[in-house]
Amino acid sequence: MGRKILAAGNWKMNKTPSEAAALMDELVAKCAGAKNDVLVCPPLVCLPAVIEKAKGTNIKVGAQNFYYKDSGAYTGEVSAAMLKDLGVEYVIIGHSERRDYFKETDEIINLKVKQALANGLIPVLCCGESLGQREDGVTFDFIRMQIKIALRGVSADDVKKIIIAYEPIWAIGTGKVATSEQANEVCADIRCCVKGLYGEEIANDMRILYGGSVNKACAAELFAMSDIDGGLVGGASLKSEDFSIIANA
Ligand code: 13P
After folding, report:
1. 167 lines ligand 1 (CB under 6 A)
2. Cβ contacts of 50 within 8 Å, gap of 6 or more
3. CB distance 234 to ligand 1 below 6 Å
4. Which residues are catalytic?
């Protein structure tokens, strides 16, 4: 099992292009030679500046969203091909904020996963239960449903490229981190679900991240767990000092 830890930053709707460029100057300096792989996902309009700053460094760049159609009359949207042409390598798909605020369904997420792969982008596929679902004891069932629908029609060759991020909704932006055991048992169950769909080798090689209030203090313990291969970090990814610690955790 040669899974390398990935520290991924989801900047969400923060930073103007000039602020993003300034943050990148700090990150490039502080994350140089980082132990873990490093990915940042800035807002769409910051991508050109961030990609420019990331050139020749160890920092990879991802987008937070796109629309699943090839092109056409979809005012306000951007396509996977546009992101790829810009130099984007990764894209977050199925984040709970997009599911919740922008009504993205499992079916839409499945279309996005396939469209990202068809255009050479690496999906960072998010899943995660609400507090109510956890309390009702349906966490594993719910997440397996999310994963199975998101991966519908995805070939074994393509699924190898995907990164999954487990983000319990109750832990996002709340400062309430899942315990390492809670996070690990769900990541392990996701791996088990992938094993059922694609076999042991693919499941063992798949990178599965934890997200939800990851910070510089808890990252090392989380990343040391058997089935957690890094973090998808929101708030703490906006502070270069904190994120560089996570990039080395
Ligand atoms: P926080 O780290 O701010 O809780 O955000 C997590 C998240 O949603 C990353 O995608």
Report:
1. yes
2. 20, 21, 24, 40, 42, 61
3. yes
4. 95, 167
